[in-house]
Amino acid sequence: MKRVVVTGMAGITSLGSDWASIEANFSANKSGIRRMHEWDRFAELNTRLAGPIDDFVVPKSWNRKQLRSMGRVSRLVVMAAEKALANAGLLDDESIRDGRMGVACGSSTGSTEEIKAFGNMLLNSVADGLNANSYIRMMPHTTAANISIFFGLKGRLIPTSSACTSGSQGIGYAYEAIKFGRLPMMLAGGAEELCPTEAMVFDALYATSLKNDAPHTSPRPYDSGRDGLVIGEGAGMLVLEELEHAKARGATIYAEIVGFGCNADGQHATKPEQVTMRGAMELALQDANLDPHAIGYVNGHGTATEQGDIAETHATASLFGSGMAISSQKSYLGHTLGACGALESWFSIEMLNSDRYIHTLNLDNIDPQCAELDYLRGEPRQMNNEFVMNNNFAFGGVNTSLIFRRWR
Predict the structure, then answer these.
(1) What is an annotated GO biological process for this record, any one (predicted)?
(2) Where are the alpha helices (DSSP H) in 249-339?
(3) What is the domain extent for residue 348?
(4) In terms of domains, do 187 and 62 share one?
């Protein structure tokens, strides 16, 4: 088995596109959530909250030919991938283009402007706005395909469009591809563009926050005063590399991936299951050959929905005990869906390396229905850990768990 390390990391969020800016905003208790006045035209949509990226601009170096197949979600993820490759010192390295680098990436859906155009065709029998690239921008694997095409990557392409586990499955499957010797390098992660249809998905389940006049007070993971989740957008990408390959080229190593667990509830499309959540964590521990006490911090999924928070915390406490430190960055950015697993993995590695762990925003009163855990709140905490875990759970009953080891 090969050892897999992280040699590049990058992301784009509503609070910045570099760790220094994002961490400063986290530490200052700054939220990326705002009221979406643009959504006032949707009378039956109850929530007006989201975490949009308002300052995203396509680089001037990208040409029209490159852009024509990319909707917003692909533009976000290609930019994150470009930054990650630059961070790894591989952006201008021809070795990534000879089949030695692949892509594992996903989003909940493709770009919805194109979905709207196809829907208009079905409803009104007209093809306004449709062209040869419409499907490419809409298709579920648009993120992975566009990364591969943009950078000329000819290794295996693994689409991971699994809603809220798209990013973490991308990292997990890329890790396995390298671990089993299929190729030495992978670009892995996920992305999501903001769309009111995604808010409506959760609105219809009565699972969105309605604190429309106080956007910075929501979402509130694990808090007794929470009233639902908030949708966000973003993109996160990691460069994964076989250890000896990374050493041979003198790469900076940020962390080692030592465990990945993934399973399915097999019961209900939207109701989280504590037993299988715990099972995914156990699989990751088995893969890493670790006991539960080795993990020093869990980056929780923390959606701020009642069912999700309660099931997740009880699954975590049943495995690790009440002393496990846990927090959720969704409290700052909202639920970035296909991006969250990648962004939260990036944040986990940064926190692991800095010994400074970000607290959950808006966690004033821990919900007594949640399990007893060491919830980080109020301010960041100094901790020294060798291993941290990042967990994500998705509609369809998909559960993922990743374990990162500090590189010393």
Answers:
(1) fatty acid biosynthetic process
(2) 274-288, 306-320, 330-333
(3) 260-406
(4) yes
